[in-house]
């Protein structure tokens, strides 16, 4: 058991009872802080440094080849605690991307209601394709409720492209050329 | 020509009064700015530095400097107060509700009539004060009128018909009564020394300043100065004594129900009290426009000397205003019962003791030197 140390409490001296030396000391302290440089960040002009693992607004990202990574598996929609995500799955058109069509799906609609989002990051954790990321956007506002629902275009615009070492479709193509179509 | 000469005695005082009011109101506005700036410096912030006026703000270097110092901020604040939506809560007592800010401001502005702010030497070589009305009872006038400002606060608290403003008003009146006694008593020794029998000045502030030509009274009467300063903080409702406002427990205190320009007038009244209080403290204890203790005034008798004396007086007043703000960010707010016990149990006995002591010293001095 830890030993309690009882601090000795000295009676106040006459000077301390008047509080005047203490007040003068306080004045000295505040005056010295006045001469120091301000520590304020002037926000709209100066932005704070956002750490790498910051959880800001959730966004959708594309792979370095410009393909959308999301395959509309709806895991994020399922795991989302406040039910902020709403995905309408859709097919990939055969004309535009023949090598992905009938292999993967893509979301037809992807809405994140930012009025509901609690920035928990579970969508990012659960995504098997690493398509949804909480990035460093920390300031989001709007004038209407509708404005606060990020649709698919908005999400891709916010997300952009993240560096990706995986190159899923490049690997598949290389395997196919080597004669191993089921890689 | 005769008409002009004849009307001068009427026109000149009015012109002087108008000039003094405009200077004083400008000072009030800029002491609000000083408050915001000094607060920000003490807290490591930047403070107001964005407000910009169309033409003045675009002068190459000076414009940016003025903007970053926030010199246009008082104008922006004032315009904001003017153009805000004027809300009168439904439950207030309307007449008194509108009357309260006026009553709060008027006494603070009235006291400046007897405030000497410089000196000049007239044709006969006699030093005269620069003052609107040089009356012998200057200090009594200030004590009497400046205390009336609390009526505005009490009236605001009562007319708001709401609990927190009411408590703020009650606290302000109790505090005012408690510290008025100590303040008056702390001044008596000062005037006993400064206005000795046979002197010409009586209780005029000019006389007190003239009496401090060699030694300032803050050196001769430090206890009086301390009591007066503490009471001054309490009377102006400044931190650490801002019982009437105390945002933490009374929302906003007596002006909770006030908005836009009505609130602004309360604000101006508080700063007018601070400036008046600073000026009175400078006159009574810091030697007024006298240069330094035991130093003869270096300025001449002419116009330049007059201006220098006014400038030196203003510099001291500005330091006192700065001191008020400085104290605000140093000391925490007192609890209400602490305020009362400090006023009644410490300051008042101390002031009485100081008075008795000074009376004895004067009696002994008179007995042995005569």
Explained architecture:
The complex is a heterodimer of chains A (183) and B (370). Chain A has a domain of 106 residues: 2-Layer Sandwich (Alpha-Beta Plaits), CATH 3.30.70. Chain A is built from six helices and five strands; from the N terminus they run ααβαββαββαα. Chain A has a three-stranded antiparallel sheet. The model of chain A has no long low-confidence stretch (mean pLDDT 86). With 370 residues, chain B is mainly α. Chain B folds into two domains: 83 residues, no CATH class; 282 residues, no CATH class. In chain B, 66% of the residues lie in helices and 2% in strands. Chain B is built from 14 helices and two strands. A two-stranded antiparallel ribbon of chain B has the order 1-2. In chain B, a hairpin with a 5-residue loop joins strand 1 and strand 2. The model of chain B has no long low-confidence stretch (mean pLDDT 84). Chains A and B meet through helix 2 of A and helix 1 of B. Chain B: Its main location: membrane.
Summarize model confidence as the mean pLDDT of chain A.
Answer: 86
Q: Calculate the terminal CA-CA distance of chain A, rounded to whole Å.
A: 63 Å
How much of the polypeptide of chain A forms β-strand, as a percent range? 5-15%
The strands making up the biggest β-sheet of chain B line up spatially as: 1-2
Q: Name the largest protein-protein interface in this structure.
A: A-B, 15 and 14 residues
> Number of folding domains of chain B?
2
Helix share, percent of chain A:
25-40%
Strand content of chain B: under 5%
Cα-atom Rg of chain A, whole angstroms? 28 Å
First CA to last CA of chain B: what distance?
Answer: 57 Å
How helical, in percent, are the residues of chain B?
55-70%
Strand order, biggest sheet of chain A?
2-3-5
* Strand and helix order of chain B: HHHHEEHHHHHHHHHH
**CA radius of gyration of chain B:** 22 Å
Number of separate strands of chain B: 2
Structural class of chain A: alpha+beta
What order do the SSEs of chain A take from the amino end to the carboxyl end, as H and E? HHEHEEHEEHH
Number of helices of chain A: 6
Low-confidence stretches of chain B: none
How is the main sheet of chain A built? 3 strands, antiparallel
């Amino acid at each position: 058991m830890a030993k309690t140390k009882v601090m000795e409490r000295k009676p106040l001296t006459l000077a301390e009872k008047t509080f005047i030396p203490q007040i003068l000391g306080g004045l000295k302290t505040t005056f010295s802080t006045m001469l120091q440089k301000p520590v304020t960040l002037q926000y709209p002009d100066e932005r704070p440094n956002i750490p790498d693992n910051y959880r800001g607004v959730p966004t959708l990202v594309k792979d370095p080849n410009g393909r959308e990574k999301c395959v509309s598996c709806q895991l994020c929609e399922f795991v989302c605690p406040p039910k902020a995500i709403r995905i309408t799955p859709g097919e990939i058109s055969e004309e535009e991307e023949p090598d992905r069509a009938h292999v993967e799906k893509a979301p037809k609609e992807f809405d994140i209601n930012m009025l509901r989002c609690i920035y928990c990051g579970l969508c990012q954790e659960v995504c098997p394709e690493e398509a949804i990321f909480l990035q460093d956007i920390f300031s989001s506002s709007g004038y209407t409720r509708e404005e606060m629902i990020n649709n698919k275009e908005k999400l891709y615009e916010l997300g952009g492209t993240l560096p990706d070492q995986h190159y899923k479709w490049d690997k598949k193509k290389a395997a196919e050329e080597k004669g191993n179509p089921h890689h | 020509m005769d008409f002009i000469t004849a009307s001068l005695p009427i026109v000149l005082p009015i012109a002087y009064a108008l000039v003094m009011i405009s200077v004083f109101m400008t000072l009030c506005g800029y002491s609000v700015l000083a408050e915001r700036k000094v607060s920000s410096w003490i807290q490591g912030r930047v403070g107001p530095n964005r407000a910009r006026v169309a033409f003045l703000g675009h002068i190459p270097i000076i414009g940016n400097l003025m903007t970053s110092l926030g010199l246009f901020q008082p104008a922006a604040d004032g315009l904001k107060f003017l153009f805000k939506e004027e809300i009168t809560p439904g439950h207030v007592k309307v007449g008194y509700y509108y009357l309260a800010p006026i009553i709060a401001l008027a006494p603070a502005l009235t006291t400046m009539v007897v405030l000497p702010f410089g000196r000049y030497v007239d044709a006969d070589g006699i030093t005269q004060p620069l003052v609107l009305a040089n009356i012998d009872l200057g200090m009594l006038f200030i004590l009497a009128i400046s205390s009336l400002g609390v009526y505005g606060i009490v009236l605001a608290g009562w007319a708001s018909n709401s609990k927190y403003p009411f408590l703020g008003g009650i606290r302000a009146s109790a505090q005012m009564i408690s510290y008025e006694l100590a303040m008056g008593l702390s001044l008596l020794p000062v005037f006993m020394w400064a206005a000795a029998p046979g002197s010409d000045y009586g209780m005029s502030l000019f006389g007190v300043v003239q009496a401090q030509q060699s030694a300032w009274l803050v050196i001769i009467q430090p206890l009086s100065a301390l009591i007066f300063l503490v009471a001054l903080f309490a009377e102006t409702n400044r931190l650490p004594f801002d019982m009437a406002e105390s945002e933490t427990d009374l929302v906003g205190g007596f002006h909770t129900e006030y908005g836009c320009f009505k609130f602004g007038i309360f604000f101006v009244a508080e700063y007018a009290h601070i400036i008046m209080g600073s000026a009175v403290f400078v006159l009574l204890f810091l030697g007024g426009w006298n240069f330094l203790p035991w130093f003869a005034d270096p300025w001449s008798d002419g116009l330049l000397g007059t201006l220098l004396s006014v400038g030196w007086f203003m510099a001291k007043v500005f330091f006192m205003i700065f001191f008020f703000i400085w104290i605000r960010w140093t000391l925490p707010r007192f609890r209400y019962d602490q305020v009362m016990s400090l006023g009644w149990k410490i300051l008042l006995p101390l002031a009485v003791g100081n008075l008795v002591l000074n009376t004895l010293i004067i009696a002994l001095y008179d007995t042995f030197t005569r």
